Amino acid sequence: MKYNIYTYITIFFSLSVVMTSCVSDEDLLQADPNVETAESFWKTDDDALRGVNAAYGSLLTDGTYMRSTPLLLDLKADDTRSNSPWGSMANVGRFNSNVTDAAIYGWAYETYYQGIYRANQVLTNVPGIGMQDEALKNRILGQAYFLRGLYLFHAVNMFKNVPLPTEIATFYPQKSEAEGWAQVIADFKAAADLLPTSYTSVSGLDAGEKGRATKGAALGYLGKAYLFTKDFDNARTTFKQVIDLGIYSLVSNYRDNFTDTNENNSESLFEVQFSRDAGGVDLGWGGAPATGWGKTSARAITYGARGFGFTDVQPTWALFNDYQIEKTTSGAVDPRLDATVFYNKPGGMQLYGKDFATTYAANPGDLNDLFCRKYQNSDGNYADEFDWRSGINERLLRYADILLMYAECLNETGDTPGAYTYIQMVRNRVGLPNLATAKPGLSQTAMRDQIAHERFLEFPLEGHRFDDIRRWGWLQDATKLAWLKSRDVEFNSYVPGREYFPIPQLEMDNNPGTIQNDSY
What we know:
The chain is mostly helical. The protein has helices spanning 38-41, 45-57, 68-74, 87-93, 105-125, 134-159, 177-194, 215-228, 232-244, 299-303, 317-322, 336-340, 356-359, 364-367, 399-412, 416-429, 435-438, 444-458, 465-471, 478-487, 505-510; strands at residues 80-81, 268-272, 275-279, 294-295, 314-315, 341-342, 350-351, 354-355, 371-372, 394-398. Residues 267-520 form the RagB/SusD domain. Residues 83-227 form the SusD-like N-terminal domain.
């Protein structure tokens, strides 16, 4: 059974004003007893928990992980392509998002700041509550810091120079990218200090609940923020703290990270909780939550194979071909290919209980094409994705990522030989040969390229590849950019500055002094 974070709250502020010539200013403020206000709401342990649950709620809507954020993270990379008839979607991968049309990227921006506002409500009001359970109070504050850090992480990473709300105010000035990363790091540090390693050993209202932020998740994202800012020493130390917690391990079956059958497993540091069984059946597009909203994802239908979904996102042939480069110790193709991609596999491949070759026999274009399998409900329990209601949790941070990021930090801090050990832990799961034997004595530069290859095959369609491309500086490297163009024609549309999305026009209009990102 999934955890109880699905509880939402919505706080409204009302001001009743009666203007006469014979009343004092205090008499003009009338509280509606039927409407909860900030003053009447934040009173109890349960109020505090409901408040942080609302901050989690912003992860579930269209702007974030119901649909938009995976698209924004995936489509610019060389592991995906899009022939979507919806220009706002197809143009993401072509580095051509339109300033006058904020569809998708503007929804994400708005929802990140909704989540930040909700987290700030907790951080502002919960310290003043005389809670009966002080440990619960600390956990709630830790989760609020984590969630604010996560939303800010996305905002800074995708939009570069953005406001950094840390308190409740009317206007928030635009800040520099460096200031943004500093705030992200501060929030994850605060979260790591307050959060438990798990909720199985705590007592209180949140005891045993899965899906809540933990110390490991906070440290993982803290290390990632250090890595993205090239602070390799601090990143190395932080990732080692995660490893030394001793509570994470790789699951034996790679595909178990992308279905609804083994969620919140030993490899997962943090995942967004979706469920077909919680809430109503309406889709949570955004704004204030409605009682009929479900807690399902539209990722599966958006990425779904032809005839089973909308096919707005497809794997690239570069991805398919890179899986053929190195065979397993038994001489087989890397098993991550079949867990990630639907294709006309010799010997047959099943999707939604049907044979791929038979399904597409009448259409050579589809028969010889590639479709997404990762995060699809395609193992036979459902006929297709057209009910829009996937219950598969979105895995935001996996232990495999920690291991490969730690290996990268070792390489960048002069311990290239040490990187082999942690890379091999990820390779062992899928039966790849010992890298130290296959490619002994790699230089630091060669190891960088090897880590890039390892990450490409481990994390396709998980929103990591373009983040890697951008932070490695490949778009500013003429040789690397030409290589990317040879793999994915969408990179031919890239112009400097377009590695970031535009600041939405509504933000430009409502926040005086905001400067648009370069090239828009």
